[in-house]
C-alpha cells in the first residue's frame, strides 16, 4: 500500500513562505504522479498543484497565480510545495495526493492515495 506523509506545515505571518514536503513509501513500484490539495473547515477539498512522474509537467489551481511551485526530488519519492507570499486565505489543511497519471491527480474523485494532511495557518 502506498503511503504518503506530509511535513512542513505551521503558523506563519502574511507574506511569509513555507515549503511542504511529501514522502512516498511502500506499495507499488509503478511511477506516480503527485499532487497537493487543501481543505478549509466546512469546504470542499481544493486542487493546488500536480506534477507528473518525470517532473517535466506541472499543473496549478487557478488561485495559485505564480505564488506556489511544485517539484519532486531526484529520487522521485519526495514531492515539495514551495509556497511564497502566503495570505490568510491560504489557511487550510494541505494534503499530499498520488495517482498513476497527472490528469487523475488533479481531481479528488480520481486520486488514488492520500496523506493525512498538514496544517498551514497564516495570520494577518
Question: What's the topology here?
Answer:
Blueprint: E1 3-7, E2 10-13, E3 18-25, E4 33-39, E5 46-51, E6 58-60, E7 68-72, E8 78-83, E9 92-99, E10 113-114, E11 118-123
Parallel strand pairs: 2-11
Antiparallel strand pairs: 1-3, 3-8, 4-5, 4-9, 5-6, 7-8, 9-10, 9-11
Task: Outline the structure in words.
The protein has strands at residues 3-7, 10-13, 18-25, 33-39, 46-51, 58-60, 68-72, 78-83, 92-99, 113-114, 118-123. It is an all-beta fold. The strands form 2 sheets. Strands 2, 4, 5, 6, 9, 10 and 11 form a 7-stranded mixed sheet that branches. Strands 1-3-8-7 form a 4-stranded antiparallel sheet, with no helix packed on it. Strand 7 and strand 8 form a beta hairpin.
Q: Top keywords for this entry?
A:
single chain, 7-stranded mixed β-sheet, mainly beta, 124 residues, 4-stranded antiparallel β-sheet
Per DSSP, the total helix count is 0
Query: What is the average of the pLDDT values?
Result: 94
How large, in whole angstroms, is the Cα Rg? 13 Å
Low-pLDDT regions: none
Number of strands: 11
Query: What global shape is seen?
Result: globular
Tell me roughly what share of residues is in helical segments.
Answer: under 10%
Distance between the termini: 40 Å
Tell me about the biggest sheet? 7 strands, mixed
Share of residues in strands: over 45%
Order of helices and strands: EEEEEEEEEEE
The SS-based structural class is: mainly beta
